[in-house]
Amino acid sequence: MAREVANRRLRAGIVGGGQGSFIGAVHRIAAELDGQAEVIAGAMSTNPERARASAASWYLQRSYDSYEEMARTEAQRTDGIDFAIVATPNHMHFPVVKAFLEQGIHVVCDKPMTFSLEEAQQLVSLVEEKQLVFALTHNYTGYPTVRHARDLVRQGALGEVRKVLVEYVQDWLLDALEKEGNKQASWRTDPTKSGIAGSVGDIGTHAENLLEFITGLKITSLCADLTTFVEGRALDDDANMLLRLENGGKGFLTCSQIAAGEENNLTLRVYGTKAGLEWHQQEPNTLIFKPHGQPQQILRTNQGYMSDESKALSRLPGGHPEGFYEAFANIYRLAIADIRRVESGEQTQGGYPTVYDGLRGLNFIVKAVESSQKGAVWVEL
Amino acid sequence: MAREVANRRLRAGIVGGGQGSFIGAVHRIAAELDGQAEVIAGAMSTNPERARASAASWYLQRSYDSYEEMARTEAQRTDGIDFAIVATPNHMHFPVVKAFLEQGIHVVCDKPMTFSLEEAQQLVSLVEEKQLVFALTHNYTGYPTVRHARDLVRQGALGEVRKVLVEYVQDWLLDALEKEGNKQASWRTDPTKSGIAGSVGDIGTHAENLLEFITGLKITSLCADLTTFVEGRALDDDANMLLRLENGGKGFLTCSQIAAGEENNLTLRVYGTKAGLEWHQQEPNTLIFKPHGQPQQILRTNQGYMSDESKALSRLPGGHPEGFYEAFANIYRLAIADIRRVESGEQTQGGYPTVYDGLRGLNFIVKAVESSQKGAVWVEL
Amino acid sequence: MAREVANRRLRAGIVGGGQGSFIGAVHRIAAELDGQAEVIAGAMSTNPERARASAASWYLQRSYDSYEEMARTEAQRTDGIDFAIVATPNHMHFPVVKAFLEQGIHVVCDKPMTFSLEEAQQLVSLVEEKQLVFALTHNYTGYPTVRHARDLVRQGALGEVRKVLVEYVQDWLLDALEKEGNKQASWRTDPTKSGIAGSVGDIGTHAENLLEFITGLKITSLCADLTTFVEGRALDDDANMLLRLENGGKGFLTCSQIAAGEENNLTLRVYGTKAGLEWHQQEPNTLIFKPHGQPQQILRTNQGYMSDESKALSRLPGGHPEGFYEAFANIYRLAIADIRRVESGEQTQGGYPTVYDGLRGLNFIVKAVESSQKGAVWVEL
Amino acid sequence: MAREVANRRLRAGIVGGGQGSFIGAVHRIAAELDGQAEVIAGAMSTNPERARASAASWYLQRSYDSYEEMARTEAQRTDGIDFAIVATPNHMHFPVVKAFLEQGIHVVCDKPMTFSLEEAQQLVSLVEEKQLVFALTHNYTGYPTVRHARDLVRQGALGEVRKVLVEYVQDWLLDALEKEGNKQASWRTDPTKSGIAGSVGDIGTHAENLLEFITGLKITSLCADLTTFVEGRALDDDANMLLRLENGGKGFLTCSQIAAGEENNLTLRVYGTKAGLEWHQQEPNTLIFKPHGQPQQILRTNQGYMSDESKALSRLPGGHPEGFYEAFANIYRLAIADIRRVESGEQTQGGYPTVYDGLRGLNFIVKAVESSQKGAVWVEL
């Protein structure tokens, strides 16, 4: 039964993201930024007290002690939520997503999509069956400059892609924060909550997704050297990988959470037969285009020369910096538009990362770990 | 009569900012970003049809055809707005602000504060009398790096300030857009709507405000050379000024809307007896600190070493870029906190630009224009 | 009588530049870099012992106790020097240059050209009379990127120039080094050796020269505010100036030797009706070109798209950084080529700063000081 | 028999580097920059006419038709050369170096040191036997910032090194220049002149050398994926490698000559347990130091806080850019000082790349090619 969604903001409910979480507030802000949705319900923690306190601090209309109850109850209310936001640790993604989809509620979910590859495969089937919107917050694809980069590749401005260098380096796990009571560090480095990979799952998948998003090329094989540098840590905190792409291109991916002095340095460089491009997440309003034999060009968010898709995802005149929230909000903007379409009986149009991207991400994790465990040898994806 | 404001988002109403406006959406997003307020009413255009269409596109609960009606009506509702947002062209600031303050409604207002110096002076009296929150959106002071810059000066890290260079250069009025039907260009270059200054009022005041905010020093005299480069334009589109500061420091301010190839380049450099600092609005998460004889330091938003005030106005871990909206939202965050305090009978704490900053801005405009008209001679502020 | 200069390096003699001098070695390296000249004689200090020790450390063939003796003797030797390098403090420029020119010896001289405007005027007459090469080392004009910037303006890529911002800020005189025995600081801040200006003469003239070189426009009036910030110093160590250009353009020039944390930051920005450009001496292989409405372009030394003149003054493939010495050496390259031409009875071709640039520099100094002394008022140049 | 070298510039002779060569002039300028040596003889081409024309254009005193003749003749002259500069294609390095060493003449030689690993091993023996100075122009180690980077690692400022990322990417062989008569491209891509590797030999060895120079750590194994992207080319023009270091550190090296839009982008990043550092050859006067939890620092050439070794290899005050020639000249400065020492019967002090670095370079080439040919598998160095 389709809901009436015209003339109102959509209603969202969040699972996870309670006090102490960084990503919870990101989802709320991103979901609400365009004034097209409002978070009104939540099951924000498995700890009931924290769940209620978190909901109160957000002035939510309804707080639940469990996501199951929330899914059931909201599905039956006439003013129930239109979509669920899943912001829990990785091991809970699958059951939570499943609960809402099965109640006919659309879902926006954090990445990596699931705890295991098997769950990811099941989720693909479920989404295909339910015909509901499922958006995965590979948020870096939401930057207008990233969209323009993809457009440059698509329109042939780079020629044939030959070489790709992608890095995502941080230092937030340089020290053993997980032993000092840091909540996020604890679950991120815990194989029972994060899955089989640490840095590769948390940030390596962003790098992999961004590479494939911009180049439109699949990684076909990789040779990965994962390392756990911090003593006593159960998962990798650093990885270097050689990549081969479906078109014969070659590449390199590195991710690290022990790269001293780095904040959140996600950088992508692509080189083709005609030109290169370079993008730095920390200065996301700039895209460097490097035509062979010509001056490098500094492309900037929302300038007239940017592609239509890129401009459509920009909100401010050039020179007024847009950042992390706005890129994240673009995933929501696109997903919300599709939710409105589904509820209005229209065709979806996509544009946001999907369950298939999530599946590729899990496959990437599994193969990277496999490669490394076998001695950093080549494996096919 | 104080309103009950606990346990709910504040309610806001906006005047101006309708379709075709860039700043309207900025106010909505900034006001709502922290989940502490919601825009629910509006008198978004003097054109009733556009007013209603604008309100509908934002899903507002109540749309008014005039700000007077909105002020009167909302003041009497038990669920009326807690504060008004004034996003009209400059000539309407004063009457609109006055209308709401006189109804006991707090106000957040665009800059320059008023059309004329006389209005600014009247507004100071009115705000002093009413004891309501009045916040002026000199939004660039909302950047965490700008706050930290001020803290560095305050704690003496620069020593005595000797030299200040501030620039705000754009190129959006390089061509005579006002003759091509550009709505914003039209009123910005129209003396009956903008006041006696063009670029000096629109962006020069931001530069002046930022300089005084960060250094804590007043400009005591200036020598200004204003120019109208685009033929047929009624107001200045470029200005260069020499400055003298109250402590004997010297400086320079330039603003331009015809600086070809520039987006929104607001840059401040301050040099003291011990160190210098540099900040660029277009890369706002970075503050460069330049101690004499030591390596320059790259200070970044929300890192542990930033000042408490700076960190309190940051929302994301370092390396996750915050931008224009978030800085703007910080003005709202501080103003909303004060509105809650006033309504709860507590002392205000400020932290946002006030009616006195607005008065200084108008005085700066008047003196810059006077200096230039007399042949670019020195005038006292 | 023309010398035979084919098939050999030219022979140069240096006055000044002895031990403790920074600029002496710069002249030697720059003069010899292309293998077209060799410094073989010198009167490197007024202190005879230091003169001899300096000459010995350079393996010079001949050391003189005075420049007069050097000029006389070298002029009579069949293997005498072809040109003299003048690297003394400012007050000695005129007598030394005069001595060599009168002996028929070409001259390359440091800037500012002379101690006073009167000397500069006399030097113009002398050079015109003697028909010898006189090159002034406004070395920043030697950068290939600066040449290309001039070419961009000349070919109309910027349209009509409207606004010019030029800065030259350092901090090497932040402390009173002249009281601590620093040789260079001592004469730089001594009016009997430097002339009537400090920072304006030392670096302000570079800024003025660069501005006029690149834009091809004369400064017609200025309003200058000079300051001596360091107590007890006899000359200005900081200046801010408003400028007006012959074509109606406006501008700003600042120079400072007390700008804490700055090294040698000479920056020029020019804005025209079509595009802007930006150049930073500290990263001299990059020129930023900013066409209105198009992406900014990063132009780099010796790339194929650079102008012929720019490439002719580049020595290395793009990406192999050229710096201060190489730019300085370009002044020598051009001057040496003209010396060869004069000695071979050919027409000179110029390309290096001349006695007329030197005269403009002195005039600029005189007018800046006059403006400031009268209270920072406008004066005509 | 020791030569008398006091009180004069050393005399050098060059082999190769004739007209059409880029590196010949680099050697001359670098050798002569400090005024401590002069190139006076040459066998600049195997083509006798070009050899003579090249020598004449440099005003050399003596031109030879063959290096053998030059070695024999110069060794017997009382005013013969003190050292030879070897600037030929790779396949000639060994015989030329051997000829001069056997005549008792010191050598400065281009890299890679020899054509094959066997030659490299023989050269080590020969240099050990002859007790002459042999310097290899791994010129990037000559940058003062690179020296300071090494000092930071040595003094423990980074803690234990964990991760190293080194890149050297260009685009000068993006097109098949070797088919268009480009002299340098021809021999660089010709296995009979370059050896078994293309990009890996030409620039990969620079990256390898720089990594080991700065970190002081040996690469113990690598997994290399070499590619020839340009059709018909006989050698690799691109490579990606995983690295493992002797202390357990991991790393990555990429080199490419088909990276569209890149000039000469050699970049090194090192991450330790306490801090990281970053250096870009294209802006070589800056070294970025990244202490964990503290602001990044911008270290600049010749500032007071730089290490003594770094400052000793700087020539200009901070802010006066030094570049490629000056770094190259530092290799010569150190080698020339050692030549003076040897000739004066003193102990050598080194500081420049040696025959052992050359051997490591050849070994690196051999192992990278072997790894790649076996399918990009791990091999021990």
UniProtKB/TrEMBL annotation, chains A, B, C, D:
Domain GFO/IDH/MocA-like oxidoreductase positions: 146-277
Entry's Gene Ontology molecular function annotations: nucleotide binding
InterPro entries named among the record's database cross-references: Gfo/Idh/MocA-like_OxRdtase_N, Gfo/Idh/MocA_oxidoreduct, GFO_IDH_MocA-like_dom, NAD(P)-bd_dom_sf
UniProt-listed Pfam families: GFO_IDH_MocA, GFO_IDH_MocA_C3
Highest taxon of the lineage: Bacteria
Location of the Gfo/Idh/MocA-like oxidoreductase N-terminal domain: 11-136
Protein name: Oxidoreductase domain protein
